[in-house]
Amino acid sequence: MVTYFVLNNISNRFLGSVLSEADTKVMNAYGWGVQFHKNSSINLFVKFFGVPHLGARMRNRILENIINKRNHKNSTLFDAGCGIGLTSMYLSNKFEKIYAVDVEEQKIKVAKMIAKNNHINNIEFRKVDVLKDKIASKTFDFVICFEVLEHVNNEEEFIYKLSKLVKKNGVMILSFPSKTLLSRMAQKSLDHHKSGYSSDEINKIAKKFKLKVVEEQSFGKSLLGKLVVGCDFIFRITFTPLASLFFPVFYPLLILDYYLPKFGIPRGYILVIHKN
C-alpha cells in the first residue's frame, strides 16, 4: 500500500505526468500526434512538468480548487467523456473510486494501459455513450464532464442523464467553451455541434431538472487572458510545437488572468451544479 502511494504520487504530480510511463501515440483534437516512449526525453518532460496544454491545465487547476473546497474524502467520482483518462488519473488520490467513460474505444484502451503502468487501481474505465447506453446503476458524489457538451447533439438530454448519476446533495461540474469568435473558429476545426454556450443557457437547463448552479468559474476573461488564449489557439492549429514551447510563458499569465477584472466574454466556463 505504501509502495502504491509513493509510486502514484511521483508519477502524478501534474496533469499528464502519468504519460511518462506510456508507450503510445497520443493525438490532440487538431490531428497532431505525439509519440511517447518510456525513458525518452518527451516522457521525462511530462513526468516533471505535465502536459503543456494551456486550456486543459487551466481547467484542471480550477477543477482541483473546486474539489478541494468540498469534502471529498471516501467519495466517488464519475468522469463523463474522460478521453485517455488524464483528469481521472490526476484525481485518483482524492477519491475512493472513479468510474470513467468515453465513447471512443481506443481512448479507453490507452487509458487502461496508462493507469496500469502507473499502478493506479481505483479507476474503472469503460466505453460508454452517455446518451445511448445504460450507465452505472449507482450514483456518485461528484460527476464531472469537461469539454464534452459541445460535442453532443442534445445537451439538454445529456445534462439530464448526468444529473441522474449525481447523489442527493452531490455536485456536477461542467466545463464548456463560451460563445466567442475563437469558439466559432474552433468549431470549424473540431467536431463540435455547437461553438459554445453562455452560462445562462446551461443554468436554464439545470433549473428544468431542479438543479442549482452554486458556483461559476471562468478563464481567458481579462484582456491579457484573451491575448494569451488567442496566441495559443493560433499556435495549436498551425504548428503545435510552438504552443508547447510558449507554454511556460503562457500558463503563468493565464493563472494571473484568473485574478484580473473581467473584460467581455471569457474563453470558457466551469459551473458547479448542486443536486438537492
Can you tag this structure with a few keywords?
276 residues, alpha/beta, 10 helices
Write the SSE topology.
Elements: H1 2-10, E1 25-27, E2 33-35, H2 41-49, H3 54-68, E3 76-80, H4 86-90, E4 97-102, H5 105-117, E5 123-127, E6 140-146, H6 155-163, E7 166-177, H7 181-189, H8 199-208, E8 211-219, H9 223-238, H10 240-257, E9 268-275
Parallel strand pairs: 3-4, 3-6, 4-5, 6-7
Antiparallel strand pairs: 1-2, 7-9, 8-9
Helix pairs in contact: 9-10
Task: Explain how this protein is built.
With 276 residues, the chain is α/β, with parallel strands linked by helices. It has a domain at 52-81 and 130-275: Rossmann fold, CATH 3.40.50. Helix content is 41%, strand content 21%. It contains ten helices and nine strands. It has helices at 2-10, 41-49, 54-68, 86-90, 105-117, 155-163, 181-189, 199-208, 223-238, 240-257; strands spanning 25-27, 33-35, 76-80, 97-102, 123-127, 140-146, 166-177, 211-219, 268-275. Strands 5-4-3-6-7-9-8 form a seven-stranded mixed beta sheet, sandwiched between helices. It has a two-stranded antiparallel ribbon with strand order 1-2. Helix 6 (155-163) links the parallel strand 6 and strand 7 (166-177). The longest helix has 18 residues, at 240-257. The N and C termini lie far apart (36 Å). Mean pLDDT is 89; it is low at 1-10. It holds the Pfam family Methyltransf_31. Keywords: Membrane, Methyltransferase, Transferase, Transmembrane, Transmembrane helix. This is Methyltransferase domain family. The chain crosses the membrane at residues 233-260. GO terms for molecular function: methyltransferase activity.
